[in-house]
Every structure is written in C-alpha cells, then in structure tokens.
Amino acid sequence: MSEMRDKISPLDDKRRLPEAIRGAQIAAADRGDVVIDMKEADLARIEILADDLKPVFDEVPADDEQWDFAISRGSQPRLWIDATSHVMMGRDRRTYRFVRDTRLGRVIMAESSDVKTVSDAVTTYIAERIVERQRLTEGERISLRSDASDAAPLEQSEPVSAPVVAPVVQVRQHLSIMTDFVNAVIWILIGALAGAGALLAFFWDRLSPYF
Question: What is the Cα–Cα distance from 83 to 14, expressed in whole angstroms?
Fold first, then answer.
C-alpha cells in the first residue's frame, strides 16, 4: 500500500483549477450540443472566452469609451469587443471566429477552436487600437473656430508685433488731405465768382450808364 501511495502524486503545478473548470465547461458544452439547444452551447463557449479575456478587459482604461466588452444573447450569441468587431461561433459550433466589419466587408481576424489562440488575437487587437487612439490624441490639433482665444494653444507661439504703417501709406494719406483741401478752395472760388456774377447782372442796368 505504501508503494501505491508513493505513486500517487499531487496535481502538476502547471495545471490550475481555472483550467480544469474550463475543461469541464467545454465538455458540458459539447454534451449540450445534443442534450440542450445549440444556442445555449454557443453561449457557453462565448462565456468561456469572455472569462479568459476578463483580465484584459479590466486593464483597459475606464475613460476609453470605444469598447463594448459585452455578450449579446440573440439567435447567435456574440462577444462584442467594440462597435465593429466581435467573436462568434462557426458553423461547426466549436470554432471561435473573431471578425471585424469594414467598409469593404467582413474580415476574419482569427479563427480557431483553441480559446487561447482567439484570446491572444483579441488582446493584440485591443492593444493596437489603444496605441492608434493614443497617436491620434497626442497629435497636433488645429482649431477651426473663429475665436482663437477659446482654444488653448498646444505650443507657445512667437509674440506678434504691432502693425507698422509703411512710409508709402503715410505719403498717400498726406496727398489725400492736400487734395481735399485744394478741392475745397476751388469750390469756394467758384462760389465767389458765381456770386459776383449774379450781383453784376442784378446791378447792370444801374451801372451801364457809367460804361
């Protein structure tokens, strides 16, 4: 009996309880393909993947609102990563399919029956999107608003000196003043001559004997 006890060893250190639970869940999902509705089997596998990705979801910054991280329990259960990407089960109901919807159609990002493989693909996708968002937010922004005082400048700009009136502009201003003065004098002289002519015509009869 002692020899038999020596042969019995504890669980391998590499084998953890979560992995054993996952194996039991997969086995239950496989049995569910026959015993219960296939939708429930797909949902069970999606939940297994979600549990594996939960540590990754928890590490995403809370202020990053581009992620969904939710399970939809429709006719075909899906694990939504963001508005354009999700994981669903393939036709064989054992293969995970990580897809993304683009303008050119649906693109398969990863496809495998191994939870770890798909989990790694989703993690890589999340990391790439976070880096992409950081690059966009850290870039230089140009304000399109007319009131520049409302937008704080990203970099200190050089002081702008007051506009200097060019000498040519000053000369033109003096010439304009002189022209206005000459025109006023001319109109005064014209008015005076017109008045003198009117007086001369009025008193012409009286002055004619003297000429």
Answer: 37
Contact in structure between 71 and 86 (CB atoms under 8 Å): no
> Are 29 and 120 contained in the same domain?
yes
Domain total in the chain: 2
What is Dmax (Cα atoms) for the chain?
171
Whether residues 19 and 120 share a domain: the answer is yes
For the whole model, what pTM was predicted? 0.53
Instruction: Give pLDDT < 50 ranges for the chain.
Output: 1-11, 13, 35, 151-157, 160, 162, 164-165
Domain that holds residue 63: 13-138
Q: Is 7 part of a structural domain of the chain?
A: no
- Can you spell out the DSSP letters for 62-110? TT-TTEEEEEE-SSS-EEEEESSEEEEE-TTSS-EEEEEEETTEEEEEE
The set of residues, in sequence order, having a beta carbon less than 8 Å from that of 68 and lying 6+ positions away, is 80, 81, 82, 83
Are 111 and 95 in contact by the 8 Å Cβ rule? The answer is yes
Let me know if residue 154 belongs to a domain: no
Same domain? For 130 and 185 the reply is no
Q: Residues 57-115: pLDDT tens digits?
A: 999 988 888 999 999 988 889 999 999 999 999 988 889 999 999 999 999 999 999 99
CA distance 85 to 6: 52
